[in-house]
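Many introductory courses stop at the sequence. We go one step further.
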Amino acid sequence: MNCDLIAPLYWWIEKLGLGRTLERRRRWFLPQLVNSRRALVLGDGDGRFLRELLHRNSHLRADYVDPSKRMLELAQGRAGTSQVTYLHADALTVQFPRGEYDLIATHFFFDCFDGQALDVLIANIAKASTPGAQWVVSEFCVNSFRARVLVRALYLFFRITTGLKVRKLSDHRPSMRLHGFRMIGASHSAGGLVVSELWER
């Protein structure tokens, strides 16, 4: 999936589609993340969450990974480079350092992977996390007819505009539990369509 084509319009696409719902989900657990020192941020798009995270934590150093060069440029413009290392890469192929990160952030990112790829991704990130690491997740939930219709429409849109091959959501929770994480908080919005989760290793 490469968002170069839609990157300049991403904020407007998100706002027109779901208002500020996704923005609120990304920010929901920010107050609980202020003590982090080393973060891995995956799929944050144009860097809005990253900017807020750094604003609240001036001691944090972050690695930011995205396959879209244009999204990386937008994130750099928002969050700067003094505390962040930007990596233009596919998260599935990155060799993350072992035991490095005490914070992982994946907002609306897991929906880009099928079940098998998601298991591999979570396993690799778990190896890169420290004991006690926090992992903040925002994702869609398919728990109603309305949600199924909307998520299918989103997958169609991103398949056309970014080449995304995945066509349905995979449940990330069993794999996260398998790799030593437990959910310590969750909050839903938009009638249960989207959820923010906070996990701890």
